[in-house]
Design brief:
Helix content is about 45%, strand content about 15%. The N and C termini lie far apart (about 45 Å). It has helices spanning about 5-15, 35-45, 65-70, 80-90, 95-115, 130-135, 135-150, 160-175, 200-215, 255-260, 260-265, 275-280, 290-295, 310-315, 325-345, 370-380; strands at about 55, 75-80, 175-180, 185, 220-225, 240-245, 350-360, 365, 370, 385-395, 405-410. A hairpin with a 6-residue loop joins strand 3 (about 175-180) and strand 4 (about 185). The chain has two domains: about 5-95 and about 220-410, Vaccinia Virus protein VP39 (Rossmann fold, 3-Layer(aba) Sandwich), CATH 3.40.50.150; about 95-215, no CATH class. The strands form three sheets. Strands 5-2-1-6-7-11-10 form a seven-stranded mixed sheet, with helices on both faces. A two-stranded antiparallel sheet has the order 3-4. With about 400 residues, the protein is an alpha/beta fold. The protein is globular and about 65 Å long.
Length: about 400
């Protein structure tokens, strides 16, 4: 077998995922080109060669866990979203030659069942306005293929996981979703330039080959991916860590549940809109559906983080001239309170001298800048961290005030 460097092996697996849209690019689900975050994480991990146990409390698509395992370290990562846990496990698993062959055979069987319509298609997922996402013909194909994958593989097997990763890539390639700006949109009739008789089977076969090219390059270290709440880590995580590298949700009202709906519905992680809203409410930074309405009655707890800077920001956002200002002020307050709860939990999982890196962006509401990086720094300093820094990484878009930072600190 051809020899691969650790960097090449990491790129192969990282490219399982390709950008769903510009806003969720940090977590990079289904990215066709190497994500910017892969480069950042790799530089941090390789720059700490003595850090043998590495933690990411906000798993996303498993970039940190994959990078750490690729470089021979032990990694643990957690997330509250079961779909992201499934995906990260698929990306960080070791696959034998037998599993690769089994997956190729299962792919051929699934395609045969689909082409001959020899299987009952699964019901269309209950996505609102699903006709905007896929044409009737594409939807028919995807329903058949999804059923065929289940028929051609056994449940909870590696072969099924690999085929489902390829299925997710294919379903987005066949969609009418447009990714040319911050908010996801849909192509209109004039923008639909794909051939009328596009070879859907060829698209799926291409994605399977792509996924398997990454699957053969196994990480040499270990990765453990766990379903857990970042605010209650010590209930489920044992031992201590030498290095933390993570990118938590930003305080920008971006609902990752909303953006991941297509995959979560097709793979059975969501059954209806209410379930999506409930999960979004449980996550840090979630404010979509039922989460928004619940904010109206939410109040800060007595164990809240107190900061003169935060008080000023919340007051300015809640100004009477700002429509929905009170709700958005509560959103920012809840986000900070949730992150405070997370940092308090984190302190019990760090070895002496452990270093943490939080990749996070600031945000604005009604022109009021929320300096998330400075608020993180304040919280960390209050908890006893030292050497706290806010290192700018890059501008997030054309707005020069919106920047991503690496918030770095060392545990005492």
């Amino acid at each position: 077998m051809r020899s691969f460097t650790a960097q090449t092996r990491l790129r192969q697996r990282a490219e399982y995922t390709h950008r769903f849209n510009a806003a969720t690019g940090r977590h990079g689900w289904i990215r066709l080109t190497p994500s910017y975050s892969v480069k950042i994480v790799e530089e941090i991990v390789t720059g700490h060669d003595r850090a043998q146990r590495i933690f990411d409390p906000f798993c996303g698509t498993g970039t940190t866990a994959l990078c750490a395992a690729t470089h021979g370290r032990e990694s643990v990562t957690t997330d509250l979203n079961p779909f992201l846990v499934w995906l990260a496990r698929a990306k960080t698993a070791r696959y034998s030659a037998e599993v690769i062959d089994e997956t190729r055979n299962a792919c051929a069987h699934a395609i045969d069942l689909t082409l001959h319509r020899a299987i009952e298609p699964v019901p269309a997922p209950p996505i609102a306005n699903i006709e905007r996402w896929w044409s009737a013909d594409d939807l028919d194909f995807l329903r058949l293929l999804r059923a065929a994958i289940d028929h051609a593989t056994h449940s909870d097997t590696e072969a099924r996981s690999l085929l489902l990763v390829a299925f997710c890539r294919a379903l987005m390639r066949l969609s009418n979703a447009a990714f040319n700006h911050q908010s996801m949109s849909f192509k209109d009739d004039e923008q639909l330039t794909l051939p009328l008789e596009i070879d859907k089977v060829a698209i799926f076969e291409t994605e399977v080959r792509f996924v398997l090219r990454g699957a053969v390059e196994n990480p040499v270290g270990s990765a453990s991916v766990m379903l857990a709440d970042a605010r209650k880590l010590r209930q489920q995580i044992s031992g201590t860590f030498d290095l933390v590298v993570t990118s938590p949700p930003y305080a920008n009202r971006m609902s990752y549940i909303r953006e991941l709906r297509p995959y979560m519905y097709w793979l059975g992680f969501l059954s209806d809109g209410r379930a999506a809203g409930e999960l979004d409410w449980q996550t840090i930074g979630g404010t979509w559906g039922v989460a928004t309405s619940r904010l109206a009655n939410w109040e800060r707890s007595e164990r809240q983080f107190n900061s003169a800077q935060l008080t000023r920001v919340l007051r300015e956002i809640a100004h009477p001239d700002h429509k929905n200002g009170m709700i958005l002020s509560k959103y920012v307050a809840k986000y900070i309170d949730d992150m405070w709860a997370h940092f308090c939990e984190l302190t019990g999982l760090l070895s002496a001298g452990a270093e943490i890196h939080y990749i996070v962006g600031n945000s604005t509401f009604y022109g009021v800048l929320v300096p998330t990086e400075h608020l993180f720094a304040e919280m960390l300093a209050e908890l006893g961290f030292s050497h706290v820094e806010c290192r700018p990484i890059r501008k997030r878009n054309s707005n020069k005030s919106l920047i991503e930072f690496d918030v770095v600190a060392r545990w005492k």
